[in-house]
Design brief:
about 90 residues, alpha+beta, Arc Repressor Mutant, subunit A, two-stranded antiparallel sheet, 4 helices, 2 strands
Amino acid sequence: MRRVEKTVEFAECQKRALKYLASRHRSELTKASAVGQEIWPDTNMTSQGLGGAASRILRKLDIDGLVDWTSERGDWGYLITAKGRALCQ
């Protein structure tokens, strides 16, 4: 079983996730697993595991209005909001 060995505090997770989402094209949907790879770059987890772990953080950011979970042509992913962009500048 693969696990995250080094704990990353929520504030740092938020910072890393928002920085990564802000670097993406404004209309490009981002999968939770890609965000997870940015939060835990040194971990040895499957993309499914990374996506599951990151989705918990992204859900909180969605509730706070910093990201949006949305779909485009049947494909689902996350986009950073204006509020999220302002926070990471």
